[in-house]
Amino acid sequence: MHKFHEVTARLEQALSGISYENLDISDEVKEQVELVLAQFRRAKGRVDAPDVELYEDLLSVYKKSNDAAADPDVLRRLAEKLQLVGIAELTQELLALHEMVSASGGDPGETFEKMSSLLKKIKDFVQTENPNMDAPAREKNLPPSSSGQATTDGNHKTPVIPDDFRCPISLELMKDPVIVSTGQTYERSCIEKWLEQGHGTCPKTQQMLSSPALTPNYVLRSLISQWCEANGIEPPKRPCSRPSKTTSACSPAERTKIEILLCKLTSSNPEDQRMAAGEIRLLAKRNADNRVAIAEAGAIPLLVSLLSTPDSLTQEHAVTALLNLSICEDNKGSIISSGAVPGIVQVLKKGSMRARENAAATLFSLSVVDENKVTIGALGAIPPLVTLLSEGTQRGKKDAATALFNLCIYLGNKGKAVRAGVVPTLMRLLTEPGGGMVDEALAILAILANHPEGKSAIGAAEAVPLLVDIIGNGSPRNRENAAAVLVHLCAGDQQHLAEAQELGVMGPLVDLAQNGTDRGKRKAAQLLERMSRFVEQQKLAQAQAEAQAQLS
């Protein structure tokens, strides 16, 4: 035991002496090393002997594929040593894993998937060993009107549904969770009904939706299923999904009308083209059946060809019709394969302001498909989006911001955005009178800050005073994003650390660590750790200087 603590102390001392700023390593690596160092410091006072058997058992199960059977004896030891012998303990671990996935931006990654697989294997083993455990719960699903309070039925206690698993509209357990343009998640049927009633805002945040597109939240759906299984509840079944190729229920008369409009799209008469494009724009906005029927009739290539028309109103109708058609998931691929992106980018550069706004919204709608992020970025969409973000109307700025945020989720687009000058524009938006773009600007800065070019540009923009002010006075989400940006800026950079300290960031960070969002608390804790280390180094340097002065 003494030797173990001695090795721990030496490792902690060795890591503390490394000058990270002199090493050519990424911010992510530095952050991981700092987390390891923090663990070593906490380990100094521990008295538990290292459990080599536990480590080897975890490693053996962790390395196995999802379908590979694990040794029951190994699973039994893991369940006992990790104290995961009941549904309640397993549920708590699954919820913690869900919070980690949410903090990572919704991307589970290989590590989280393996952790999830490990928990599932332990859960399956525990339920196999105890077949009667929570048996009454497995015989029925949660009551749809459950309010989240634990209720009793005989000796069985209905588990509390985590808030993150409930639809903010119905307050029921979600079966088919989808993400709207503000980043909030809802049950598909509930948000679709909301949109069909003519609402254009996010029910939870009341922000205007830049697009009616709905993106399936596969990570949350998987976590809900695992939580249900862990609690002995039948996982919610998704409503019967549409066939892989959506078909329209339009009447023959409506289809005839659409065909007539398509003929006018190819007319040599500009007025016919303008009228037909405007009609198709309205039909595509009206309902899902129209969107499918219009695409089935072959309208998409014809609309794409009109993106280059010299008639500004026809051009606006065409790009807006494509925006409305892109709401249908099947149509997104057709629009991309029809070569629409270069035309949309051209409208974004040269069209009327309304056409530019709708072009940006179309790019956002198309970019919800991951491979489209690559295509759109490669075809030159990012510089004109940055221009619209800088000089557009309030609506245009929001359309550009949501498109840029989505595109910059793909790593290869982050450098393009920085080189297009997005950081100075975002910094200006943070200080604009009225503050109407603060949320969007901070969200984009937060995903650019972990990129080397993004970090450099944000640092050059002298962002620290503004970030410190937002951490102290911003909304919960803005404080979280400001702290996330500052974490990356201060990684290996004592100049930014000293500046933040002089500006009085310690008090707001302590408050954020106690009262912020979950992600905000983690970011604040990281910054406080770095600040404390920086202060200790300052005191040590001062003491050494004073000692040297006394000697001389």
List keywords for this structure.
3-stranded antiparallel sheet, 5 strands, 66% helix, globular
What does this structure look like?
- The radius of gyration is 28 Å and the shape is globular.
- Helix 1 runs antiparallel to helix 2 (27-43) and helix 17 (353-366) packs parallel to helix 20.
- By secondary structure, it is mainly α.
- The protein has helices at 2-16, 27-43, 52-63, 72-81, 87-103, 109-129, 135-138, 188-196, 218-230, 252-265, 270-286, 288-296, 299-305, 312-325, 329-337, 340-350, 353-366, 370-378, 382-391, 394-407, 411-419, 422-430, 438-448, 452-460, 464-473, 476-490, 494-502, 506-515, 518-551, and strands at residues 151-153, 156-158, 177-179, 185-187, 215-216.
- The model is unreliable at 45-49, 133-156 and 240-244 (pLDDT under 50).
- It has 29 helices and 5 strands.
- The strands form 2 sheets. A 3-stranded antiparallel β-sheet has the order 4-3-5. The chain has a two-stranded antiparallel sheet with strand order 1-2.
Summarize the structure.
By secondary structure, the chain is mainly alpha-helical.
* Total count of strands: 5
Largest sheet data: 3 strands, antiparallel
Strand order of the largest sheet: 4-3-5
What share of residues are in beta strands? under 5%
**Unreliable residue stretches:** 45-49, 133-156, 240-244
Alpha-beta content class: mainly alpha
- Rg to the nearest angstrom? 28 Å
Please tally the helical runs, counting DSSP H or I stretches of 4 or more residues.
29
Which outline best applies? globular
End-to-end Cα distance, whole Å, is: 44 Å
| Helicity range | 55-70%
Q: Mean pLDDT across all residues, rounded?
A: 81
